[in-house]
Design brief:
CATH superfamily: Zinc/RING finger domain, C3HC4 (zinc finger)
Order of helices and strands: HEEHEEEEH
Strand content: 15-25%
Radius of gyration: 15 Å
Strand order of the largest sheet: 1-2
CATH class: Alpha Beta
Distance between the termini: 9 Å
Structural class: alpha+beta
CATH topology: Herpes Virus-1
Largest sheet: 2 strands, antiparallel
Protein name: FYVE-type domain-containing protein
Organism: Strombidium inclinatum
């Protein structure tokens, strides 16, 4: 039997709310079932990506007040503020259930993936 994930021919775009205050701010995210975040056994240490960050959070696009505010998602390696990287998740292939800090975008991708699996 084919699953919805297996039948996907192209990436799926979805919208998440990335606001922290009263003004709603939405961002379109691309979901791909074979994204490398779904097969990590430990932190993604893409130092090239870390070196090429802009002065804005990759999730909410807010400007950092200082460099101490910059956090990195252990799944996608993108820089984000502490409000957008606020929780942890077990790495999918971790044998010891190691957890990593995760941004709103990556966390949303895991939820979408789970919903597609549940709709089988």
């Amino acid at each position: 039997m084919n699953t919805l994930l297996g039948m996907m021919q192209r990436p799926l775009n979805f919208v998440i709310n990335t606001s922290h205050g009263p003004d709603r701010k939405d961002k379109t995210i691309k979901f791909e079932p074979d994204d490398k975040i779904f097969s990590l056994s430990g932190p993604n240490e893409d130092f090239t990506l870390k070196a090429n960050q802009n002065p804005f959070c990759n999730c909410c696009e807010g400007k950092y007040k200082n460099q101490k505010d910059v956090k990195y998602c252990h799944f996608c390696s993108k820089a984000c503020c502490s409000r957008c990287r606020y929780k942890t998740r077990v790495f999918p292939r971790s044998m010891s259930n190691d957890r990593g800090d995760i941004c709103k975008e990556c966390d949303s991708k895991f939820w979408i993936r789970q919903m597609l699996k549940d709709k089988q």
